[in-house]
Amino acid sequence: MIARQIVIHDDLQATAQGIAARLITSITDAIAARGVAHVVVTGGSLGIAALKAVAANPAKIAVDWAQVHFWWGDERFVEASSPERNAGQAQELFDSLLPLGLELDTVHVMGSTDQYATAEEAAAAYTALLAEEAAEGAASPAFDVLMLGMGPDSHIASLFPNHTRSDELGAIAVHNSPKPPADRVSLTMGTINTAREVWLLVAGAEKAPALAAAQHEVNEAAVPASAAHGTEATRWLVDRAAATLL
Ligand SMILES: O=C1O[C@H](COP(=O)(O)O)[C@@H](O)[C@H](O)[C@H]1O
């Protein structure tokens, strides 16, 4: 049975702090159990605030960061130096963990326009990287925690309502994204749903209707967030403003 939980915090900052504390504990537990932790991080307002909260949390010294792999749920297919890049916005966290053992070759960033001519090529390269780090017969590593921000339209990663879908495992190219920039790379829903725990991070009153719709019924096409789940647990980590319609 998959545990399903909704945790409501006071505001975005409190939610970010709660996620950071939970993430540090989950990574510590994963390393104790399996010797390694695979974590998928997300961009977005709360996703980046949560990563900054990890960087600022003194308990981060309790983690053996040399055993941690970071992956991305999605990325904007633009220049590596663009402020639009999720990876660039999270650099503060990775920099703060380097003195604590994190190795840059276990921070698996999705490709940019500096490296690949098309988003398809960048997606194919990420799919291959996921397979390289996977156990035999699997398409991706066993993610311990996979975090997803959610947009007011209920999109997660770069999977938008009634937009690009794929039944394949791995990463796909997304074009004509309703939210700029237009070209992106995203994990597929099938890959997202292989994670042990999926955490959906939601803050802000403008997201209240989408949060309520995602709890109502599973409808992957119209409400992508409703279809994301972990194999062991699905946690909605939200603030009070987003929770007003629950
Ligand atoms: O474009 C994206 O948007 C979502 C949500 O962003 P938010 O600012 O509304 O929280 C994010 O999770 C995703 O990674 C990003 O590429």
TrEMBL record:
Q: Which InterPro entries does the UniProt entry name for this protein?
A: 6-phosphogluconolactonase_DevB, 6PGL, Glc/Gal-6P_isomerase, NagB/RpiA_transferase-like
- Pfam families named among the record's database cross-references: Glucosamine_iso
Supply the CDD domains for this chain: 6PGL (cd01400)
* Reaction(s) the record says it catalyses: 6-phospho-D-glucono-1,5-lactone + H2O = 6-phospho-D-gluconate + H(+)
Q: Which enzyme type, at the first EC level?
A: hydrolase
Pathway where this protein functions: Carbohydrate degradation; pentose phosphate pathway; D-ribulose 5-phosphate from D-glucose 6-phosphate (oxidative stage): step 2/3
Q: Which residue ranges does UniProt annotate as crossing the membrane?
A: none
List residues of the Glucosamine/galactosamine-6-phosphate isomerase domain: 11-236
Alphabetically sorted, this entry's keywords are: Hydrolase
In short, the EC number is: 3.1.1.31
For this protein, what is any one GO molecular function term?
Answer: 6-phosphogluconolactonase activity
Q: Among the record's GO biological process terms, what is one?
A: pentose-phosphate shunt
Family (UniProt): Belongs to the glucosamine/galactosamine-6-phosphate isomerase family. 6-phosphogluconolactonase subfamily.
Purpose of the protein: Hydrolysis of 6-phosphogluconolactone to 6-phosphogluconate.
> What name goes with this protein?
6-phosphogluconolactonase
* Organism per entry: Glutamicibacter uratoxydans
Q: What is the lineage of its organism?
A: Bacteria, Bacillati, Actinomycetota, Actinomycetes, Micrococcales
